[in-house]
Amino acid sequence: MRRGEIALQEKTRTLADLVLRLFIHFGDLKMPVVRALSRVAKQALLAPACTCQPLAVAVRNISFSPRQVTSDASFHSVSFSETDHPKVLITGGLGQLGVGLAKLLRRRFGNNNVILSDIRKPPSHVFHSGPFIYSDILDYKNLREIVVNNRITWLVHYSALLSAVGEANVPLARAVNITGLHNILDIAAEHGLRLFVPSTIGAFGPTSPRNPTPDLCVQRPRTIYGVSKVHAELMGEYYHHKYGLDFRCLRYPGIISADSQPGGGTTDYAVQIFHDAVKTGKFECNLKPDTRLPMMYIDDCLRATLEVMEAPADTLSMRTYNINAMSFTPEELAAEVQKQLPDLQVTYDIDLVRQAIADSWPMNFDDDNARRDWGWKHEYDLPELVQTMLNFIGSDSRVARVN
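The structure assignment produced for this chain is given below.
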């Protein structure tokens, strides 16, 4: 054998041995592409001295994302019992729900086990309260790197453009709410994450039953926000059945919280009324007084999110659940606020876009499945909601003086 052939064979054996060792140590040998690499490596290692063949696999073209993996791939979520605590990443964390959920999860799992992320600069108190990282869900590589480097096991995906804002910028809503979701799904499946993606009352449309609205029925929403949420529900269920992704989803009603400003949603009037009542004593509502929608105080919403994430997988009869707490109209909410602030003046200037959206949404949610499967139970009804909101917002203002 010529000296050049001997040198080439030695290099081939060395490379094959390295590939085999790397994938035996790090890879999932059930994956088709890893099996193929293993076979090639073994053949090179066992080849006779006189037959020298180069490796026939272009390693640089191999990717392990579900975007490229064949249909017999199998992904398995790391169960909560297999780790001391989950390592949680929250996307879109500076929205209405992310900061509150981070506080709740940090109390339960430890401060350093919950990473808040967004593309915006966080306020000082959020930045210093626990881990924060820049994360753009449209940047697949960056998001994947965050998951790998921080050994994430739970992913809570809050990044989205809400209903009214989405209608004003459909291309951006499509990119954030749909393309961003695809990145999240692929990365969650690839790395065996437990994934939570919220849905909404906006996932229903004018042909859906409205009072009550069951978990399974005709949806067909007429906003890009609603369409993207139906897409998320169905894609999450598909990835669950196709790849074994541990996908969990709750359809939130309108969420009311005191420590965040309205963010462009159709139900935001139910937050704005408290700020205006405390600051000026006057509130102008952009929905008709008799527009009934399901609502929930944020503490109930965050607790429901934690409870469904902790629920054993075998207790879940479905992957997307309605959750409900109360249902009221602007007129009923204003009357309850006026019990605390009798001088509150309420007027109505109807926003036709938001009113059309609200008229296509459920008036009340049927959440019997959530209550049966994993024990969901709300704590805040309308009187408790109003008292809590006014106490929080008005502790040093008009409410305090009235009381």
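Interim note for the steering committee: The chain is about 45% helix and 10% strand. The chain has a mean pLDDT of 84.
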